[in-house]
Amino acid sequence: MKKWITFLATFWASSLHASGLLQWPEIKSHTLTSTVLEEQRRVWVSLPGNYHNNPDAQYPVIYFTDGSYLIKNIQGAMWALNTRADVPEAILIAIENPDNTRARDLTPTVYTNEFSPPGAVTGQSAHFERFIVEELVPWVNANYRTDGFEVIAGHSLGGLFVVSSLISPAANSVFEGYVAMDPSLWWDNQVMIERVTTAATNIPSNQHMVYISAAWEENIPPEFMDLYISHIGGIDTVSKVIEAQYPLNSTYQIETTESHRSIVYSSLYNGIRAVFQCYPKICVK
């Protein structure tokens, strides 16, 4: 029961916000004034260890939502992958999604259910996407040595945003890699199933790498069973549509030993490795 209360809370508000991020010397905080969002938004930047020692080198960029709690996890995944030489060094851009705007930023439609907090604002992910594509990415490219290979990653509602970005012409013209970790594809009665199916023919051929993971859990409390079935069913259906219909490379991984929250660790490692497997190119099947 306790695990599923936590499971639900994760969809609406990230309670894992890391504290003292600036104690990590390789992480720097920046506050951007967004015209699109009409507010300020904080991002954290983590540069590769050799960035300043190689002034001519350019690097891929990994952007990820819920940056305040994922930044240290993704740094750990990158350290492990780099020690194995599985992926190139990369610039990490952690985007803040505060509790009071998280559902607004990361969901594609206006929707609430019995688990929604009072007054929840939803359905404005198109604005958040515009902020990333039109303001954040150009800012990163202007201030850091980037090589044009961009990845977008997210967990839970952030994973929902990643899938939504995949079928958005504005976003999929920018990002080559997509990492969706146990995405909340139950959202709005599985609205993304129809959207992904409809958009299949609009994705440019052989220009993207996609990784989607799902946490297969047992012993679900009866009162949460309908939500869980919608959640895991939405992930399974959307992932199989992508595998079967989309002209791009995809990896769909079901984790039977992880929970919605713990899957972050394995999925960051496996997802980053999957989308970089043919870097700097896109694998052609």
Description:
The chain has 285 residues and is of the alpha/beta class. The chain has a single domain (2-275), classed as Rossmann fold (3-Layer(aba) Sandwich). It contains nine helices and eight strands. The protein has an eight-stranded mixed sheet with strand order 1-2-4-3-5-6-7-8, with helices on both faces. Helix 2 packs across helix 9. The chain starts with a helix and ends in a 10-residue tail after the last helix. The model is unreliable at 13-25 (pLDDT under 50).
Question: Would you kindly provide a brief summary of this structure?
Answer:
The chain is α/β, with parallel strands linked by helices and 285 residues long. It is 40% helix and 20% strand.
List the helices and strands and how they pair.
Elements: H1 2-12, E1 27-34, E2 39-46, E3 59-64, H2 67-83, E4 91-95, H3 102-106, H4 125-143, E5 146-155, H5 157-166, H6 169-172, E6 177-181, H7 187-199, E7 209-215, H8 225-245, E8 249-255, H9 263-275
Parallel strand pairs: 3-4, 3-5, 5-6, 6-7, 7-8
Antiparallel strand pairs: 1-2, 2-4
Helix pairs in contact: 2-9, 7-8
